[in-house]
Amino acid sequence: MDKYVLVEYLSSIKTAICETFKHTQRIKLTSFDVSNHYIILGTNSGGIYIFKRTPCEFLRLIPSKEGSTVHVKISPDEKNLAVASARGLVIILENFFADLNVRPLLFTEHEGHAITVMKWHGNSVYTGDNNGKIAVCSVHAKLTKAIFQTPSSTLMSLDSSIVQIDTYKNYLLISTKTRTYLCDTEKEQYKQIGKKLRDGNFGACFSQTDFSDHFDGCEGVRKAFKTIEGEDSFSSKVSNDVRLYCSRPGARLWTANFEATVLSTYQFRNSLNVQSSDLITIESAKDTRLRVTKFDEIEISKDFNFCKVYLLYKNIIMTYDNKGIYFFNVEKNNIVCWSHAFDNIRDVKILKPHIYVWRNDLQINIISLQSLEEIVINTLISKQYLLCSDLCVQFNEEVFALIEKSKKINLISILRTKLKELEENDLLGKIENILNKLDEYYKDQTVGLKFENGIVLVENQYSAQATTLPENIESNFENLDTNKDLKILYKQYVLNKTHKLAELTESSKILTNTNLDELPSLFESFIKYVKDKSEEDATLWCKEQLLKFVSKSLYNFDQLKPPTVEALSRYFLDLNNYKTDCCKCGFPLPRAHKRKLDHYNLASKLFNYTENKQEYLNNIPLLYKINACELALNLAKITQFSDKEVFKKVLFTMTYDKWDDVIKLYIKLSQCQCLNCTETIDIDGLLTWTELGMLMVESIGPKNANRLVTRYAQYIPKGELKQEFYQSCLFSMTCPNQGVAVKFVEEVRAAGTSKMLGDCLEQFLQKQHSGLQSPHKSITPDSNIKCSYCQISISNPVLREVKHCVCGHYYHQVCFKSHSSICKYCVEDTNS
Q1: Per the database record, which ranges form the HPS5 TPR domain (predicted)?
Q2: How many other C-beta atoms can be found within 10 angstroms of the C-beta atom of residue 626?
């Protein structure tokens, strides 16, 4: 039986929440939700507080006039937010984060009743109330449906208050206080599961989770669902592996199928006499040590019942009540873990592997149920070597037993080296039995495999002396006894000493014909080969060759073994360490965005694949370019990074007030002060006032940009606002698209014809001032024609000089004369 442990992760979430609400004693939390990037808090004032999930920090407040919130629910794609008010109203905020002037959609199906449940599925949110009504509200309704049907409707009116709703494909599983129903949203029908009634807050869930974001379900549905009675068919094509779990009184669970037929009953009453689980507390620091809290309770109370139920892992069901939280193994019919360490629980949210537990008002704990193998390996990968060793001591027998069953546990062999480096000899002695067992068990675990070309692959699953490759995989690499290949690679190695870019056909062929998952092992063998042959360290060369090879290929990392991806990641970070592009506090310096990075496309793929993005950003701050939307959440950081292209990616999120804050930060940064720690920094690469101004023109328009520039004119050095800024302001007022106007001015500047554009603007202003209007020169009456180069209308009142070519193309005079890329066959029409 797998050993599971209950873990609490200490975080800054409580501090961030308390800091936000410390001056608002009358505001109380009434609801919460958690997603990949956000923590959403609803309050009795109706305001919605949005926090960044990790690291936890307050982002923004969305006010509401609809009264206290009882539920908040963020959509799976994190674009839309559903809010239930105490008045029974459902409010949906579309694009709630991107659109700062979000206009709420209001639905009144539950008005006058208490909404008890909300559940997103695709673009629809299902709601239930204390009167038994089930409704659906949809966003992004298809145009044809939106014309003829309302995007909300009442689906069912059931017998009692709704306790829980779960979804799977086109099915709803609805649990009321007395019954459980299975609903088919495609057939618009539902059927009761089982016949025996109950009375209480009993929940239900599916045995598999459907994460589809593209389910269209009840979008536009108007009709109420029909009930299927008795033995009537409720057939379905859903896999037989998917089951339905329904809570029953007396610590029981029903399991049912998609015919709404009860298959069996699990009785857990006899499993409750198990002592409360120990609680392991983990901090993020590298040198943290094991903290275990023990509890004296020897069994769960006899009046225990399942309430709401949630699928945590395969066969693992979680439930909670006011006293604590409980985990059951349905397959083995026993309790896995339980604890009353977290009482007064008001709600929980699961974001695997974490469980967010909301208690009382401002208290949110982050816990996790993990297998012993999982937590040992995770602490090892996080380089918490002391904590990993402490776990091996605490669970010595269990870890010892994992050696013959786990494919990963051999990774902890690196602890022998690490503990010696840390001079933790006493701790090393306590886990010596485990490390010795690893040596003994893997010593003879080799498998030979002969390829058609005669190469023999020898799989050595463990090597106590391997220390040159990344720590979390170094003891798991294979060895290749391929003398011929090693000799060819050695020729390439010697050649690259004098001709860095030269490539031998033979060596390229070896790399191409070798499976990528096997390449780290090949290079490991080569490092040893070179060491023996010439006493040189070829590790750096091997890392460069592997990254170079992978960069040329389009590999899907999901198809690679985790150790291979980890090796690529570690190699890349080893060879690209640009911590000097950061301030001592970790904030990126302005010059970071100018860094030229080898294998940038590979870096992008690795960065998007890894879960530990912060390590990449700390080593290579240039990668903030990839993380633009995340960077925009921190105005100080995006200002100090000072990359024009990153700003352009997030212009849609920037408001007048945000630009006002950016200018204040920019003024401070111009004085060589880090915006995070105020230390003196190098500001090489900082945006110019002109570039900043043109970004504001593109984002909030020329009038607002001018207002801000005028407001802070005293801080702008004379001559820092170049003519391009003023040209952008004037020209954008004549274009329907500010971005197009700014881009045009930038291209004109690059072509060296800013004076020509300036003359055009001067003529335009003179005519505007005098009130005179004259027809365009060399232009047809059709104002829909666009310049073949810049795609701006040839009837633009500033660019009045137009050239008509014999081939039929039209160009603004500015575009025609300043851009050599215009087709050489385009000749000026002499009659124009």
Answers
A1: 513-677
A2: 19
Residues 135 and 110: beta-carbon distance below 8 Å: yes
Q: Are the C-beta atoms of 275 and 336 separated by less than 8 Å?
A: no
Number of domains in the chain: 3
CB-based burial label for 166 (10 Å; 0-12, 13-18, 19+)? buried
Which amino acid is residue 624, in one-letter code? Y
Residue 15 lies inside a defined structural domain of this protein = no
Q: What average pLDDT is seen over the chain?
A: 82
In a 10 Å sphere around its CB, with 0-12 CB exposed, 13-18 middle and 19+ buried, how is residue 508 labelled? middle
> CB of 505 within 8 A of CB of 549?
no
Using one digit for the tens of pLDDT, what is the confidence trace for 672-722?
999 988 889 999 999 999 999 999 998 898 889 989 999 999 999 988 888
The reply to whether 370 falls in a domain is: no
Whole-number Å distance between alpha carbons of 258 and 234: 7
The span from the CA of 315 to the CA of 752, in Å, is 69
CB count in 10 Å sphere of residue 322: 10
Both tokens assigned to 218: 């009840």
Model confidence pLDDT, tens digit, residues 94-141: 887 766 667 788 999 999 999 999 999 988 999 999 999 999 998 864
Alpha helices by DSSP H, 362-482: 372-381, 385-394, 396-402, 415-421, 425-430, 432-443
Asked if residues 586 and 578 have their Cβ atoms less than 8 Å apart, the reply is no
- Greatest CA separation for the chain: 100
What phi and psi, each to the nearest 5 degrees, are found at residue 310? -135, 140
β 48-52/57-62 pair status: antiparallel
Tokens 């990528």 appear where? 516
B/e letters for 212-249, b = 16+ CB within 10 Å, e = fewer, are eeebbbbbbbeeebeebeeeeebebebeeebbbbbbbe
Q: Quick check: 193 and 174 in contact, CB under 8 A?
A: no
Read off the tokens for 121: 């599925």
Q: At 655, phi and psi to the nearest 5?
A: -105, 175
d(CA 659, CA 701): 12
The pLDDT-based confidence of 522 (bands split at 50, 70, 90) is confident
Structural domain harbouring 797: 775-832
618-to-37, 379, 469, 588 alpha-carbon distances in Å:
19, 20, 21, 8
Which residue among 539, 554, 570 closes a domain? 570
Identify whether residues 535 and 422 lie together within a single domain: no
Tokens standing for residue 702: 């020329």
Tell me, yes or no, whether 407 lies in a domain.
yes
Q: Which two tokens stand for residue 189?
A: 């029908």
Per DSSP, 202 falls in state -
Q: Is residue 435 part of a domain?
A: yes
β-pair type (226-228, 325-329): unpaired
566 and 473 share a domain?
Answer: yes
Closest CA to 136 of 154, 161, 121: 154
